[in-house]
Amino acid sequence: MTTATKIRAAATSPKPRKTPAETHLQALKERLQEISDIASAAAVLSWDQSTYMPAGGAVARGRQMARLSEIAHKKRIDAAIGRLLDKLEPHAATLPPDHDDACLLRVLRRDYERSIRVPAEFVARSSAAASASYNAWTVARPANDFASMRPHLEQALGLSREYAGFFPGAAHIMDPLIGPDEGVTVAETRALFGKLRAELVPLAAKITAAPIADDGCLRKNYPEAPQLAFAIKIAQDFGYDLNRGRLDKTAHPFMTGFARDDIRITTRVREDDLSDALFSTWHETGHALYELGVSHDLSPPLDGGTSAGVHESQSRLWENLVARSRDFWVHSYPQLQAAFPKQLKEISLDTFYRAINKVERTLIRTDADEVTYNLHVMIRFDLECELLEGKLSVEDLPEAWHARYQSDLGVRALDDRDGVLQDVHWFAGGLGGSFQGYTIGNILSAQFFEAALKAKPGIKKDIAKGEFQALHGWLKTNIYQHGRKFGVDALVARATGKPLSIEPYMSYLTTKYKALYAI
Ligand code: ZN
User: Fold this and answer.
1) Residues 199-223, buried b or exposed e (16+ Cβ, 10 A)?
2) What is the Å distance from ligand 1's center to 320 Cα?
3) Are 487 and 365 found together in one domain?
């Protein structure tokens, strides 16, 4: 069609008139897209801060991110959004509850009612504090310097308390920090952790009483380039699309997204430990596959994962249920041996499989095995509660940390570097409300995987052939595509036919590790 005929065609076909509801909905979606664009710009700055930014950029970057956060928040709490939501209420009532717009209006109403309680000035102050704390932590951790982080941590605790204060009437001070998306309260988390602990502790005791697995084969010298090449090749096999993402290096691996088709992952490499880059890359790949799989029909704020717990279930599913399984390595181990012939030629598949599943009571959560990992999370959750409740001071935190590691895991760090300073959490904004998501993610990873296997029994055989489409397809259909349309409980019930349960997880751990450790 030429330009002239296009103009004629446009002139002769009258535009269909929009209903008032359609007009309001369009106005609302334009506002939501604008907020999302500003938040995405802040996310680019944050990604850059954690990957390529020279240290000299720190102060200006903190100011820039705080400014964008404040602008986005002001737009989020604009009374015009509240008015549009009110006008659209009769329209929402006519839609089926699962309709995209019905879900959008329901989720937005909840987000809006929460956001308007929080002043924009607080959001800017929190963002600036988080940047300053993150930059200080990158220096303080290698220097084992808790004293320099103490004011930052005290500020983070103060900000968390202040935030909780915007939601009076909560049963526990941490409940508003967890937020309604997670589908649990502190009381429910404690009950869940109690049940899990009762089964995990005896299992961990049995395994650690058996002869320990030798992971020496992972501790040779593994040059960085082939590690990264192998990690990203497998990520692509899982379904990660490099036209819609990329991999970069950072201190504490994470996934972030700037647009529906730009979802990035980061990793870190240790040349003396093969497992670090591989499993952290595949962990972040799991997060990225979730974001990339959200239906393009969904607009902000539905266009992301439904909760931190469900998000973590996807990273852990790919990292552990898939990539720490023997089936996976049947196909992938010969490829890894080809990438590192000198280091792995003499190492059998079974020796390697035992090495990557070594169970040991250790100091660092992110390096912990599947069996002891949740014990680390429970320590962090309890310490967060004690700090927020005012039962523990920041000054006494390092020693409280050591004491809990001694009593729960039987290990004690020599310094704070491997104690309270060990990872970026608590030092990059806020304290409290997120750690329970790691354990809920582990629990759900097994529940979702069990449901996928039930629906498609060939998945394990596929994995042993290096084929992941059936699993990826099931996850996309049952979890990814829905974005934030459904809450945790509804999503878990839809996908697995049951409420959240620790049974699939404990049965997975028990079966796997009984065989590995002959207990
Ligand atoms: Zn994660």
Assistant:
1) ebeebbebbbeeeebebebbeeebe
2) 12
3) yes
